[in-house]
Amino acid sequence: MSLVLSPEAQDLLFREARTANTFTTEPVSDEQVRAIYDLVKYAPTAMNQQPLRVVLVRSPQARERLVRLMAPGNQAKTAAAPLVAILAADEALRSRTATFNAALQVGYFILGVRAAGLAAGPMAGYDAAGVDKEFLDEAHTVLAVVNIGRPGPDAWFDRLPRLTYEEVVTTV
Amino acid sequence: MSLVLSPEAQDLLFREARTANTFTTEPVSDEQVRAIYDLVKYAPTAMNQQPLRVVLVRSPQARERLVRLMAPGNQAKTAAAPLVAILAADEALRSRTATFNAALQVGYFILGVRAAGLAAGPMAGYDAAGVDKEFLDEAHTVLAVVNIGRPGPDAWFDRLPRLTYEEVVTTV
Q1: Contact yes or no for A143/A106 (Cβ under 8 A)
Q2: Of A78, B26, B46, B152, which has the fewest beta carbons less than 10 angstroms from its beta carbon?
Q3: Burial (Cβ within 10 Å: 0-12, 13-18, ≥19) of residue A6
Q4: Which residues partner with B145 through β-bridges?
C-alpha cells in the first residue's frame, strides 16, 4: 500500500470522479461553496500568491448572459446546472506566476467540489473576451467555467484514456 | 457537514499538509511515485490533454547538476531531499492550453504526494532556462521542482495567511 489516503477518498476525489454533463435540480448552497473554499485555500501557491477569484452566477439574468457566451455544446448544461462558477485569475501583476498559480488553484477547486460530494463540469469552451467583459473587471481574466451539482441522468461520457506511468515519468 | 471527504483525508491533503523544508533520509521508492501517478492521472485536464511530464532526479550526478541551478535558498534542501522531481509541460503545441493544463496537473501531483503520506516541497526559485537545457528537450519546459520525502526536524515555516471567502468569492 503506497498510498495513505483511504480508498474511499481516492475514489471520491480521483478514481470514480467524473466530469458531469447533466445535473439534478438539487441546489448548491453558499454554505457548500464556503466549505469547499475553506478546504482548498490551504493548498499551496508559489509565494502564497492565491490569485484565484470565483464568481458564482446565481441570478437568472446573469445565467442567461453567461449561457450566451458559452460554446454551443456547453450551453444547455450551463443553463441547467444548479450552480455555475466563473473561475478567474487576479492578474493585477499580469505575471506568468499569477497565471500559473491560478491554474493550480483551479485544479484544487475542482477537487474541492468533489470533496463536497458534488460533481464538477469544468469547461474551456466559451468566448473568453466576452466573459471577461461581462463578468470581470480589467484586472481579472477568466480561466474556466465550472458547472456544479449532483449528477443527473446520463451524466457521464466514457472515461477518456490516460497516459501510462512510462509515458509521463522518466528518471535521470 | 458540507463536505463528504473524511476529516482525516481533509487534514492529510489540505489542512495539516505543509510545504516541507527538511527531510529524513528515508527513501522514496519508484513504487510510491507510480502509486501517486496512477491516482492523480484521473484528475481532469481540458480536452484530456495531460501535458505533465515528470523527471525523477535519482543519480548523484544529476542531483548535483540540478542543485547548481537552484536559487541559493533552495540548494541545501534540494541536495538533501530523498527524491527530487522536475515537473515539466510538454509544449509541443506551445499553446496557452498546454501551460494551463500542466499547471492543473502540478497541483494534482502535489496533492498526490500528500496522498502517499509524504511531504512535498514545491519550489519556483531556479534557473528555468538552465533546467530546460540540462534536463529537458526542446519540446518541454520546466514548471516546478518538487522535493519529496518524510519531513525532518524543523521542517515547517509558520503557515502563511490565506485569503478569506469574502475576498475570493462574489455572487452575481
Answers
A1: yes
A2: B26
A3: middle
A4: B86, B123
Give the 3-state secondary structure of A125-144. Answer: CECHHHHHHHHCCCCEEEEE
Instruction: Find the CB nearest B50 among A99, A106, A162.
Output: A162
Q: What is the Cα–Cα distance from A147 to A159, expressed in whole angstroms?
A: 18
Cell of B97: 492550453
| Domain B24-157 superfamily per CATH | NADH Oxidase (3.40.109.10)
Task: State the Cα torsion A140-A47-B89-B48 to the nearest 10°.
Answer: -50
End-to-end Cα distance, chain B: 25
If you ran DSSP here, which 8-state letter would residue B111 be given? Answer: H
pLDDT digits (tens, 9 = 90+) for A119-139: 999 999 999 999 999 999 998
CB contact under 8 A, A171 and B116: no
CB contact under 8 A, A107 and B43: yes
Give the H/E segment covering residue B100: helix B96-115
Whether the pTM exceeds 0.90: the reply is yes
